[in-house]
Design goal:
This protein has 14 helices and 14 strands. It has 385 residues and is α+β, with helices and mostly antiparallel strands. Strands 4, 9, 10, 11, 12, 13 and 14 form a 7-stranded antiparallel beta sheet that branches. α5 links the parallel β2 (97-101) and β3. Bound molecules: adenosine-5'-diphosphate (ADP) and magnesium ion.
Amino acid sequence: AIMATDAAESNGVKLAQLSERVEATLRTFLPPEASCRNPVDMIASASPENYERTLRAVLDDPAVDAAMLISVPPVAFDSMDLMRRVSGVCAAATKPVYAVVMAPDAFYDEVHAIANHPPIYRFPENAMRAFRDAARYAEWKAKPAEDAPTFGDVDQMRAASILGGRDGWLEPEDAFALLEAYRLPTAPVRTASDPDDVPALSRATGYPCVLKATGSRLVHKSDVGGVALNLRDESEVAAAVKTMLAKLAAAGKRDDAERFVVQRQAPAGRELLIGGVRDPKIGPVLAFGLGGKYVEVLKDVVFRLAPLTRSDAVAMISGIRGAALLDGVRGEPAVDKEALVELLLRTGRLLADHPSILELDLNPVIAQPRGGRTLVVDVRVRVAS
Ligand code: ADP
Ligand code: MG
């Protein structure tokens, strides 16, 4: 009973307080040494009949949602007799009953013959976990059904034409175009394979801008000097290109830099990640967490099946350990959570609508307070035709 009480505590299950009426009933047939409070201790002399009457009385208490009976088989009776007795109560009960019987294997082989016996566990910890999971499942089932929203402004045809026939990692401009087809807010990008063409491109993005070296083998661009921030004009971009080429060469990665990207620099904000994978067994799964370069360090990520309902998206945002950071600490303004909900819903849709997307990684999404524009500044998408 002590083990069960500890297991209840650690699984978030509350021990019911038995009513005085039930306690009085138990007093009428249990020995004076018995404890008639929860957890009831019938003491070692308890007979199968005592179990039956106690179980019936306890289940009858409106404060009780489920009962667990525990028996360490004594010499005085056979556990099969105990199960025959209590299975009658279980058959009539409207509440779940769990049994913990620390009996030898033979008992477990034979007990199946008894109709309506309760589920039987060897240890109270397992029984308590089963009860907790059943309770969670009931809570989940009781929630009103909710549809995952669809978006009328999504350009399905454009997304399909970007994805059509592709394999592997998408080029950055295609990856961003895919997000734009789903009306996800991104920082505009221009790309070139010849680094000499890059400075002129920056005139179109505007300043301050960011320079990046990309390629399917460059997983973390910033690790190899492939990201330069705060470039204020074309000449700074030209200088940054030179420095970047030197850094890439020094890291032995010059050949991995297939394309160069210039992108409008987003205002500073809180860096988050939205990820997606298509799991071969369970399907499209969306991830949300605190992101940027620290994602692997923080490991603060939650998951849901895509497409998401609005409640899923809201629960993801409040479900990370660092959720308080989104509300702002030490005078910081809160981030625009409605914008994040929208981003999650649309990304979930994108992943669910297009089975050829195997994996996507929006990292970082730079979140802003209300009135600002939360933007995706880096995205990787892996597809299979
Ligand atoms: P990678 O993840 O491959 O290292 P990112 O494009 O995510 O490359 O850039 C690394 C970091 O640089 C980001 O986490 C962010 O802090 C910053 N950064 C990248 N692009 C921008 C941008 N357009 N505006 C502002 N900051 C950016
Ligand atoms: Mg990134």
